[in-house]
Design a protein that fits this description.
Oligomer: homotetramer
CATH topology of the largest domain in chain A: TIM Barrel
Number of strands of chain A: 14
Order of helices and strands of chain A: EHEEEEEEHEHEHEHEHEHEHHEH
Number of helices of chain A: 10
Radius of gyration of chain A: 23 Å
CATH architecture of the largest domain in chain A: Alpha-Beta Barrel
Distance between the termini of chain A: 44 Å
Strand content of chain A: 15-25%
């Protein structure tokens, strides 16, 4: 922690700060400059989390030096984490998993049909919403437990790992009993109760980045899960909100590269939500892979004109198969496999 | 709903769309222009919520005409709603309530001291967090039920209405048994399960705007509460995230005026979070009031240097009293009272 | 300047940095912490502007301590600057000037009519565009010099100070010969050649904030003008771009308060562009004044349905007169005068 | 153009609008819905650019149907444009040009050294700033004409096409006499006088996207150049401003794909500015190429520790050569060549 003092800070004010930080067990180092005086604080910075030095008289600003996350950081663990879901699928490995499926689970038959098609094209996991976070209370809210049953049955039938979104702390146990991985959606990235609750299950968690979250906030949310003892977190870049209105969101390709530098956790991408337009999902998916992404989640529907949600961004099974062929070539060019 | 067709749309494609919308019970009106053809759809637009016309062949874009919220809109209710909390405090009236208190409840004694001071300065309600949404799992997370007990006791003692944040559907009942109003924080604005759960209680709900939410999304979240039958919602502008790093957030003064045009619900402001710097809280509070704000929520702490959270943005009781004197003059200038 | 080292920085790397900064005439202070080592640099920071210490081996980050602007800062000049345009109008004084007029100058007769009306309502300066920055090359681009002549004649007739936008270095001399103040528009806030060119004239300059500029960047642009010796700069908050689509821009009320803390220059607001909707211009204008704004610029047109530009945000003369009555009351409540 | 009326619009108001648009030569089509009435306008929409129908009594909103750009659109020209700079380099072709070089031209010797290295690694064009847009008036502003002379000499010596930024209308002729391509920087994307001036030269123009510009605004700025008769425009995505502070800007990969759908012009990327950190330039460059980018511009410096500007984001020649090898593999995977 570094404390920068105002030019007009008095000796009494400086002494007051020194007394305070020493009482907190920190060792101060003063550098007196021509224009500014600076105090460097050595010791357990955590002690300062409840003491707002910013408002001490004479203080201009306080600059943290240590990153606020620990368990998720590269400093805590140098090598890449590989999150294994089952014996066929793992994130962070040379083999890059592709999760595909409809936005919402609509029927057993529909889910089976799509699962068969994405499996044939090379997907290794199945997505599908049973509890849907919808902006409007009047929109389709998902099939609930019925949908989870379809998910489990279809996943088993096709040998696909399964993932679905959890939105309510009260649903964690139920959902955990049906699927292989939890998804925390962008809107719940800072639903801290929910992060703790999925943490306790020790199942893999795909943690989507909040729509306007910084990388630091995203990693702090992952830290909530890791701090419960569950290290099975896969970060998922799903597009951030920008001024652009041509696309639903903006895929932040930089964030994939930065998150992988800062953290040992695998980082995947969701090009469907990150674009919101099926016509550019392919470009975004290729880019995410080329930038080092450790997984992809892509919406596929065989009749998007009748999809209950997100039809605009769903690929037809045929287009998905074509994209998988392109992705295999890009994967090879960056020493990965799909 | 208006459907704009691509210049190259074929007759067969147009017919396919006409068939579809007629099947949904809508009446289409075609206007054939030199460059573009447009189809206006008359009838129940809700029918289209699960049909993504955007991806029908030949369609360029689809433009909704009706606003997606109903119960919160001015069209539903012309006159301003007045949300009465008890016989001394109401939002949306000529008298503008000021809610004040510490960010976190830290102790019974501390809360009593601050409550006495803000009451003396003219506040009519007391704020204080018992369950705190903190970015870091290692930060102070609140006193929980113990804090609620302090809140209830102190509110009673000073005749102040009480408000605290609820973050978890499982806590709604407990919190509701202690305080007069719920607060839904910015991070939970789209926690739809929580919105429904507080809706069911029929207690007043202060709904903070999400950190990067549009006004429409904010009103849609209010619609979730109203759709449960609970019309006691007070919208609270608490600052949005922008590129500015000098302030924690940016008070969106336009949003206060626009939300009051679009909706009959009262709109208040939280200048403490909207600025994050105690030195400009006063300017922001005066501005919110001058722009038509129906209430203010201001953080006050008598020892911000030792506050467990948000010390940087808390006013000292003396500064708060001074601000209240300024606010009374501004209120009068816009025909309100504080 | 503070240099934070990586945990794994070697002694050789540290020595390399120490050598470099000492060669630049700076005095380093090392604080060795348990996790991180920090080097504080004392001396002329300007020496570091061309040396990217960030990329020296072993460096994690570099944190500047001094603000990058000098002449515009409160540290350079403690008391508020008052920018006098002529003997009747000054910015930064108790009396708050209101600049009003049409977006574009359309005709001599039209300008005269509007000028008479805004003068009667209490405006002290006249605005009007002769060279218009339009997003489309096919939109009306302004009357050019003809418009400047109308401006000069009408300003003289009604005793109103005049202001118009300059967009091209080649037009500075011409425009300066007709009007009392230059306006630098948001799109040109970082047109550094233009800033220098208007600086050389020593006429008052209204410097609008760029659409996504930080306060620091805005002040740096003002520094360009001041560094030529022209201290007559009035900062103008005109709304920033945010995600909100209900309004054209978002008035950043915090920025008015912060800019006045950081700088001695007067800070005014343009509620017309900051909202883009005439129905909320009044709320925004009252807010800007209540927050401490030192001036207002408001678009007025007596036939907005036929205005060549920005009709959506122009007030009718009658509405403007009503707003001026409201503003007088708010001004009084904050110890100003209109 | 579609005009949506308020529910309470009167017949007289509707008639007033119909009269107006018919006078403008447009043919109205009315659709009367249960809740809303809509008027579709057929005919030359340009006529409406100076008539703000939004503020006609009874109007709720006005929705444009045609895109505001013409010459840059895919509707104007279906096939991709190939912009040829000389007989060895063209943008929009199977072969993807890579422009490399230092941020600023610092000396003849330095430029020669770097040019030789990037040429050897496979670059086909040389970049380097002679007139630098710097946020601070106290930072290095470039060598001016001296730098242009170095550029011309070195480009000739190594057979590299040359590009440099132009910031002032008065410099267009001078710069055009030394280099092969103009660059319009992000800060000047809406410097409309400058766009027209470079248009007149008919030289190729690399048009960088403004830091918070929408794709539509970017294309409108290109339209300014094309409307002068100069069709040699290459769009360059260089990162947009977002909330992220870990990176200088955010590469908008979606924008590359969308701009290529909307326009026939080639779209390149500048991963150096789009990230601001040399450690992730490679990931961003690979992503831009995989997404369909038609060119890359990369900063290279052989002694970034002493670079006059942007040292943080410059690659060392060795790293650049390594990246070129990676890019060749990715190019091949998407059927391009580098």
């Amino acid at each position: 922690m570094i404390v920068v003092l105002k030019s007009e800070a008095t000796e009494a004010q400086i002494q007051h700060i020194l007394d305070k930080v020493q009482k907190l067990g920190l060792k101060p180092h003063i550098s007196r400059g021509v224009e500014k005086t600076i105090i460097g604080l050595i010791g357990p910075e955590d002690a300062l989390q409840v003491t707002p030095l910013e408002i001490y008289p004479g203080v201009e600003k306080v600059i943290p030096v240590l990153s606020p996350y620990r368990l998720v950081s590269r400093e805590f663990k140098k090598e890449n984490s590989v999150i294994r879901v089952n014996d066929r699928i793992a994130f962070g490995d040379k083999q890059v998993p592709v999760i595909a499926g409809p936005c919402s689970i609509e029927s057993l038959e529909g889910l089976r049909r799509i699962a068969g098609q994405v499996k044939a094209a090379g997907a290794t996991a199945l997505r599908g919403g049973a509890f849907k976070p919808r902006t409007s209370p009047y929109d389709f809210q998902g099939l609930g437990e019925e949908g989870l049953k379809y998910m489990q049955a279809v996943g088993k039938e096709f040998g696909l790992a399964t993932v679905t979104e959890v939105m309510d702390t009260r649903d964690v146990e139920l959902i955990g009993s049906y699927v292989d991985m939890f998804q925390i959606g962008a809107r719940n990235m800072q639903n801290f109760s929910l992060l703790r609750e999925v943490g306790k299950t020790h199942k893999p968690v795909i943690l989507k980045r909040g729509i306007s979250a910084t990388i630091k906030e995203w990693l702090m949310s992952a830290e909530y899960v890791l701090s419960t003892g569950n290290f099975n977190v896969i970060l998922c870049e799903r597009g951030i909100r920008t001024f652009e209105t041509e696309t639903r969101n903006t895929l932040d390709i930089n964030a994939i590269a930065v998150a992988k530098q800062k953290s040992h956790l695998p980082v995947m991408a969701d090009p469907s939500h990150a674009t919101g337009r099926w016509g550019i999902v392919g470009a975004a998916a290729r880019a995410a892979l080329a930038a080092g992404g450790d997984g992809l989640m892509i919406e596929v529907h065989d009749n998007p004109q009748e999809a209950f949600s997100d039809g605009e961004q769903s690929l037809l099974p045929g287009n998905f198969a074509g994209l998988m062929r392109e992705l295999r070539r890009v994967a090879e060019a960056v020493d990965r496999r799909i």
